[in-house]
Amino acid sequence: MMIKFSAPLWAASVLLLAGCAAPAPKQPPVLVQTPPRIVVVADPKLTELLAYQASLRLMTPSELVKAQLELARADHAPHNTIRRAMLQATLRTPGDLARAQTLLDAITQASSDEAKLLAPLAQVLSGQYADLRRQDEVVEKLNGQLREAQRRNDQLNEKLEALKNIERSLSVRPAAGAPK
User: Which residues form a coiled coil (predicted)?
Assistant: First the structure.
């Protein structure tokens, strides 16, 4: 004898059998280690100095001169000293990077609370300025080598032209022993 199942009865029996099936084994949760969070509370003076550094890059030469005049009138507080160093490094006339490093060295050696707060920034800037000085020295050395190579090239071209002139003068003269 054959039993006919209706569609709802069929679906119910499938669900009932599915419920009897063994549950999937639970996997232990994967533990992910996250690095510890470091919260840095930025000092307003540091934030202002970083903004000042960014603004220097956008200034025109006349604006840089105006900023230099304003800083000359400012007091010698550590944050103004760092501003002076940043401005010196931006001007990049001969000796400016060395002067900027000297200003920053005074901050790293000072004992005031503000100087101690700004000392890490002064150390980073001083390191960058030292790198820039080394790069400038390499560029100057390469420029000297290029000038010397150009000078030698000019001398060789002069000698070559002199030899060409001698060759031309020889070809114009009649050969020796030729009938006249």
Answer: 132-173
